[in-house]
Amino acid sequence: MYPFLRYASTIAYAALQVKRGDTLTFKDTSEIKLRCRLSDIDNFLEMNNGRVLTLYDMGRTDFAVRTGLGKQLLKNRWGLVVAGSTIQYRKRIRAFDKVTMKTHIAGFDERWMYIEQSMWVKGKPCSSALLRTGVTEGGKVIETARVLAALNQSDWKLPPTGYVAEWIESDSDRPWPPVG
Fold this sequence. Notes:
The chain is of the alpha+beta class. 34% of the residues lie in helices and 29% in strands. It has five helices and six strands, in the order αβααβββββαα.
């Protein structure tokens, strides 16, 4: 089941931080702390890979609220979409582990923002995800220039480079739907 209460508390805590003046720009990295709960683990007593992706939603939500994007989403009746992702797992997260999640923008193009997220336990990276995300209006992805303008960051440029650019290129070769 989706952790609606946890999601709501993430929004409330991020809003409280904004009220206290702890805001971010799109150039910053969001950090939130959480604990691996019994409802997060699988039969191997580690965080379920599906739950990892769900908890990454919380990190992106904190980032959106603290950067002011959340306010613009409400004001303009925009939505958010994830259009692709890749994830790597390196270290198990066990029940009751304290987790630090980091979220930042790794690059953007005319249409998509590429978000990089990671989870850390005791200073060691456990997983890392790269997501292709977009802002929608009326069910269609809008230009990132509009989003940046709404946040008074029109002059910011961050083209995808390195492995992000390589992932974009290789993903464009992927057949859809997969043949099989």
